[in-house]
Specification:
mainly beta, 7-stranded antiparallel sheet, 59 strands
Length: 894
Amino acid sequence: MKKRYVLVVVTALIMIVGYVSETRSDVASFAAVTGDYYTEKYRPQYHFSTPQGRLADPNGLIYFEGEYHLFHQKMGTWAHAVSKDMLHWEHLPIALEHDELGQALSGTSVIDWNDTTGFFDGEAGMVAIYTSTEGGESQGIAYSKDNGRTWERYEGNPVIENPGIKDFRDPKVFWHEETEKWVMAVTTDKSVTFYNSPNLIDWQYQSKFGVDEQGNEHGTHVAVWETPDLFRLPVDGNEEKQKWVLTVSVGDNHVTDGSTNQYFIGEFDGYTFTNDNRPEEVLITDFGQDFYAAQSFNELAEGDDRRIWLAWMANWRYPYQSPTYPWMGSMSIPREVTLRTVEDGSIRLFQEPIRELKDIRATEHSIDSFTLEGEQVIEDFSGVSYEFEAVIEWEEVEQFGIRLRQSAEEETVVGVDLNSETIFLDRTNAGLDWLIDRNGELFQFGKRFEADFLAEREQIKIRGLVDESSVELFIDDGEIVFTNLIYTKPTNSGIELYAEGGSVEVVSLDFFHLHSTWREAPAEGEIERIVVSEEYLNVNIGESKEIIANVKPDWLGEIEPLEWEVSEPGMVEMNKIDDKTVLITGVEPGLTNLTIRDPNGDNSKEMIIRISDGSNSAYIDGWGPSPLSGEQSGHWNIINESSVTSRLEHSYEWAKLYREELMTGDFLVSADIEWVNQGAEGFPKYGLTITDEEKTTVSAFFNKDINMLETYAEFRGEAIGWEGVRLPQDTNLQEAQALKVEKLGDTFTFYFNDKEMYERTVKMVGNISVGIISENTEADFTNYVIQSTTSEIYCLQDVIEMVKTADITPVGIKQSSLSHLENAQKHFERAQQLYDDGKTNQATMQEEKGYKSVQNFLEYIQQRIERQIAEEVKEELVRMANYIIEHKTESLNK
């Protein structure tokens, strides 16, 4: 087996891309300078992803005056990036924010070359067409006179009002030469509706596609249709024979176990789309699970007649549930789409990576033809970000394939099963097996995806794109395509071929390492960084686990052995297995850091190792899910029982971590909290949270941006609202500041550095769960303390005795107080009799009357002025009565 290995000299400029954050440029710019930009675990290296926060549908893809523009959904706004080659992207500020008409959902951008809108004084300019949300989904437009850097909303929006339906969104707009009109395709539930316009402002309804006049449903209707695209392509490259392609994404559903996508081939005359195929025929765009909302560029450079699209590499079953931070979501590689005639004479959509991808090849490794039977490890090539091409032929074999991102425990498999006549991409054993989906339910992420593939073909051409967290496959020049996310260990870099039940002829096999498109290429032989198999390792005392370290870039040759150092050597035993692997054995409980350095000391990687005593508790040092609801979210570094660090999430959603203790009655909770870092989205809020068994919640936050102590409350899950107070002007939240919340009855008092700042009244009942909370912030929580202030358990008789013995004048107040309490006592006694007689409903009503009488006593006492009842006596009676009401101490329910 002859091998050839050459270094590819990349003639295209591999440049570092300057990043301008939507609201903060300092953090990302620093990262780029230090070389840490886009190096987080699972971060794609040559696919587009947002620096932080959520990415969703691509919007408004277009080329104008030397730049490709990629807009995309980001929490109902249009984020924006530009590129010279569709691979190296520069992030720009948000293009379309929310306005008085609500969010700016998905849509299109066009170049109004002839100024049909009148926006551009006879020149050409960019127009965005998008969906707004206020008062129902409708279509609006905005325009830019400076190449998409700034935008103005059209003052007459919406240009198409909602026709009285729920789903009316995602307009795709283009200029139709034959009718000399702008055409809009917009999804309307499980259909696509077409409009046209002379000027992008005045629109006329034309037709609808989805169900024909005979009532036949075209394609799959298992869920709502979204993000349509419509374009014309020559068949087999013949410009005299052209067809129209209509594509739609299909939302989350149980039939396809998530969202999917489909396309139709037919005719379009500017008014109506006609499907060439049978209504029941479903043409799938991508057989993987992570290709959604595909959109094509409306314009390309002059002379470039390709149709190029890309898609959101995600699925609506788990759109933002993947284990990545500070970003969520990425795009597929841009692909050229074509129409070709296949063996049975039908026309199908083909997809192939854009030719520009070859410009980022760093190395080439080619293997001459050989016969494969059994397994064959690729010895001289490995990696996590690369491209490969294989041509394989067979006569007699049952199954064959390629195992990618392989380690001793994990792998992603591309295979052909000749018995079932299928080709598959299998992430069952790729790493992440299960996740919690957007519905809060357990979802099997690790599974196998298949497409039909006839054994009689006897040859297959496979082109694969492998990145840190994805695999894209293009079979036989893109006739069959798979796009799948994978979350496998960063050090899994092995490749292995296999054949079962026979042999195959590997006609050709080529691998290409790919440069990162987000950082400057390292010098030849230079170590860029170190990656490890685990960022955070839990090991029990006496238990042993391996840690593997690799150096980047993937194509580096032999290097000197890495250096390993543990900060607390007595806690673990470390044994070296080879130059890149050590075995860690737990010795003493605690927390230690492991640092791995390259031989020159220029690069290092630090990770945390926690040594536990081996218990199976869901809690680490008492921290974990709420003992009431099981709720836990976000990423936290648990240092010990009183110290925790929140990780930066870059999300509007709150991260929450709870103590395992349940509280009742009165208590106080406090912590010293120091701001460390924050993201560009949302507000930097972090603090303490308290929740009872009926989902009534009180939370207290420091907010660094506005220097406030904020409080938020919910009653039984329904928002009560925000209240707060300014912190002292000289407060420095970048230093540890003490936050304390004291619960006394229904009163919550909030303290800053032991100074009382604010008070709220919120009624909580039963058991209470207490924890910490963070939004969009990395913060250090230290000296966390939770302490009960309820010294006794009170019952009704205790209150009666105190009223009888207390110095309460005049006598009438004492008598009225006793009257309320004795009335309550009678109700509770009557309830006891009813329970004994089996009359549960009547007994419950009597109990409620009893507690109402205690409440009446409480209100009566609180209204007494100080000279009638001594303040300390009144406070104690109020405390006792509140305790009885909150804890149902007189409950007789049997």
